[in-house]
Amino acid sequence: MIQLKNAEQISAMQKAGKITAEALVLAGEAVKPGITTKHLDDIIRHHIEKSGARPSFLGYGGFPASACISVNDEVIHGIPSKDVVLQDGDIVKVDVGAFIGGYHGDSARTFAVGNISDEAKRLIRVTEESFWQGLKKLEIGARLGDVGAAIEGHVKENGYSVVRKYVGHGVGRNLHESPDVPNYGTPGRGQRLCAGMTLAIEPMVCTGTSEVHELANGWTVVTNDGGLAAHYENSVALTENGIIVLTKV
Ligand code: MG
Ligand code: MG
Question: How far away, in angstroms, is 105 Cα from ligand 2 center?
């Protein structure tokens, strides 16, 4: 069942969203060649806890860290490690959640490590653009298929593919709630959108195949062809007065 939120609940979610967004900004500022993904995770955990919140991902389904940090062909759910040292030219996806006041925020960004290729820059840009193209379709009375079709349409126009195996989701008291929010769809189809929905919209975009698989560690999801992947996510609320991006500083 979809749990609709009232104005008070949405304002509580903005607080969780702000801490989430701040942690991502701090992580982004720290990204450079030579640092480990564990170091980024420490920065994120420190900020979230200092703010009186709890990292949503820590212990979620047994996940061992505060953020999911995924490099290059790793799409999502990468486990931060002191053995993963970022290299010049890498792209790194940082996915963060913070829980406070009974609600979660959930947001992800893809950062450049040093100097990256033009292709990697373009992938990151198109991924972010596809999120905003989808968001434009998020309005009362529209359908989730409108959102997904807009995201996938923009990605395909640019010669890339969207991951289908993993999708966005409702967010609120639980990190993952109904409905699923696919980054593909058919206009006019799918769940009808109404006021009070709070959704994590999160295109995962690949340069090559959209086929992905999980590594033997039971978490990290990588592209089957080893191609690069980017990720961009915000938690958003749909209200009578329009859209609120919850995960912003
Ligand atoms: Mg996320
Ligand atoms: Mg999410």
Answer: 9
User: Cα–Cα distances in Å, from 97 out to 20, 28, 48, 148?
Assistant: 6, 15, 9, 23
Q: What range defines the domain where residue 77 resides?
A: 7-245
- Lookup: tokens for 180: 């699923």
What does pTM read for this prediction?
0.98
CA 108 to ligand 1 center in whole angstroms: 5
**CA 112 to ligand 2 centroid distance, Å:** 21
Identify the segments of the chain with pLDDT beneath 70. Answer: none
Whether 1 maps to a domain, the answer reads: no
Q: What is the pLDDT of residue 165?
A: 98
Structurally, the chain folds into a number of domains equal to 1
pLDDT at 9: 98
Q: Look at residue 210 and tell me if it is in a domain.
A: yes
**164 φ, ψ (degrees, to nearest 5):** -105, -25
Neighbours of 4 (CB within 10 A): 15
Task: Say if 2 falls within a structural domain.
Answer: no
Q: What is the predicted pLDDT for the residue at 215?
A: 98
In a domain, 62, yes or no: yes
Tens of pLDDT along 205-230? Answer: 999 999 999 999 999 999 999 999 99
Taking the centre of ligand 2 as the mean of its atom positions, its distance from the CA of residue 168, in whole angstroms, is: 6
Domain of 126, CATH number, reads 3.90.230.10
Give the Cα-Cα-Cα angle 235, 104, 20 (nearest 5 degrees): 65
pLDDT score for 38: 98
Q: How far is the CA of 211 from the centre of ligand 2 (A)?
A: 19
Residue 246 Cα to ligand 1 middle (Å): 13
How close is the Cα of 106 to the center of ligand 2, in Å?
A: 5
